[in-house]
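Practice problem 4.
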């Protein structure tokens, strides 16, 4: 089934969307909203002020090419931050600390399935929510599948623990630098604001995912024939003979990581730190990990470069995604689209409008699975829509988080997901049978959370 699925590369999909954006500048009339500056110095759209423009500048076809370098320059802060974080995470992985932590936890709770699943999912969700980790987990697929085999669980359970954990982490992140912080910056919100509500809703959303995975695992433990992978040789695994050993060096590296996380929270919440300061903090963590992990400096440098290089695709997607909005802005049709999307949402209550934003983001995630890329492509549109329909920009960001994180567990354009499934030997069709009901559940809970957020005036 997987081999029959012919999905174009995400970069090709983005390029197609750029072409569509250019075509829209020829079809749609130019228009603009009036804007006003708030007390905090942010520009917001004035409701009911949309006007068509008499003149519309023509967009030449070569604007598709010039838009890319201009967009990358416009998004340079995010792009360089992505490179730095990717390099530092690679250095952390090279110390073996993260793998040792997961191995020690799994070894300790190997006879307590519920505790094992809860702890592993919580760990993956935490690292994804804080550092935006996802692709780094690919290296752990073999360890998880082998451990699950020793527990009489199938490979689907291992993949579910991994993907569900990081999907929930992205969806309800408190301060993921690749998603929520970028989206808040674009929406003109204070960086790290609204953390208390995201922390509250993270609990029930995580529990929904945990229950879904645990129920399947218990069913397989009781009767292996009920596995969704029964009869699929590529998805079978054997138990490991040994696990990574936790050493003093690993503990010191993990302690430095925890301290960094604490400083990051403090800096965002109380000092107004953003990409420049956070990038410096990550660089400090990389240096600390090198010293504490006793890595050779040449090895650290090569690892850092390799980790940064691995983020090139993400950086390009950020630039291409920004290009889409840039073309629409140059053609002066971005506000026309905003007005068109806001029109139907304005006909329904604010609560329904918020849920509509979630559904729109979920669909768009099929074409823009990159969290940062989707933020750049959609938030310039969705945030102003919130101004027009009575939904706060904080709620609009929350809808973006849910749409990006939850559907990333199932969209075939997610390169990390397809890589994990490929390594585990799990056919995409079989994974959909497991994950689609979970995505529906999480989306429903997310929709309820958005309704509550509107009710309480979440800012």
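Answer key:
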């Amino acid at each position: 089934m997987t081999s029959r699925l012919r999905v174009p590369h995400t970069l090709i999909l983005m390029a197609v969307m750029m072409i569509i954006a250019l075509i829209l500048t020829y079809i749609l009339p130019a228009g603009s909203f009036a804007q006003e500056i708030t007390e905090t110095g942010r520009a917001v759209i004035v409701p009911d002020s949309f006007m068509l423009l008499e003149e519309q500048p023509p967009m030449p076809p070569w604007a598709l090419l010039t838009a890319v370098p201009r967009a990358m320059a416009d998004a340079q802060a995010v792009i360089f931050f992505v490179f730095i974080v990717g390099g530092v995470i690679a250095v952390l992985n090279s110390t073996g600390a993260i793998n040792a932590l997961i191995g020690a936890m799994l070894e300790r709770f190997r006879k307590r399935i519920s505790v094992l699943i809860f702890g592993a999912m919580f760990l993956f969700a935490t690292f994804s929510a804080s550092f935006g980790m996802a692709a780094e987990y690919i290296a752990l697929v073999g360890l998880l599948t082998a451990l699950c085999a020793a527990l009489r669980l199938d490979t689907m359970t291992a993949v579910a623990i991994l993907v569900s954990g990081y999907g929930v982490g992205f969806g309800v992140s408190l301060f993921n630098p690749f998603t929520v912080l970028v989206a808040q910056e674009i929406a003109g919100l204070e960086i790290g604001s609204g953390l208390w509500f995201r922390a509250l809703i993270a609990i029930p959303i995580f529990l929904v995912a945990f229950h879904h995975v645990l129920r399947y695992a218990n069913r397989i433990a009781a009767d292996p024939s009920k596995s969704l992978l029964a009869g699929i040789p590529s998805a079978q695994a054997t138990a490991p003979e040994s696990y990574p050993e936790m050493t003093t060096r690993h503990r010191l590296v993990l302690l430095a990581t925890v301290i960094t996380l604490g400083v990051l929270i403090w800096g965002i919440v109380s000092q107004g730190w953003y990409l420049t300061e956070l990038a410096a903090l990550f660089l400090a963590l990389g240096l600390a990990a090198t010293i504490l992990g006793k890595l050779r400096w040449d090895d650290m440098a090569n690892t850092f470069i390799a980790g940064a290089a691995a983020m090139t695709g993400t950086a390009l997607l950020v630039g291409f995604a920004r290009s889409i909005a840039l073309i629409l802005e140059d053609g002066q049709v971005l506000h026309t689209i905003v007005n068109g999307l806001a029109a139907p949402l304005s006909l329904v209550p604010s609560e329904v409008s918020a849920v509509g934003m979630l559904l729109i983001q979920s669909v768009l995630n099929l074409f823009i699975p990159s969290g940062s890329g989707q933020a750049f492509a959609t938030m310039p549109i969705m945030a102003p829509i919130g101004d027009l329909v009575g939904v706060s920009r904080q709620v609009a960001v929350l809808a973006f988080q849910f749409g990006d994180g939850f559907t990333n567990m199932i969209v075939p354009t997610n390169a990390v997901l397809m890589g994990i499934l490929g390594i585990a030997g799990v056919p995409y069709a079989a994974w959909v049978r497991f994950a689609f009901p979970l995505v529906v559940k999480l989306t429903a809970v997310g929709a309820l959370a958005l309704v509550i957020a509107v009710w309480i005036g979440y800012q």
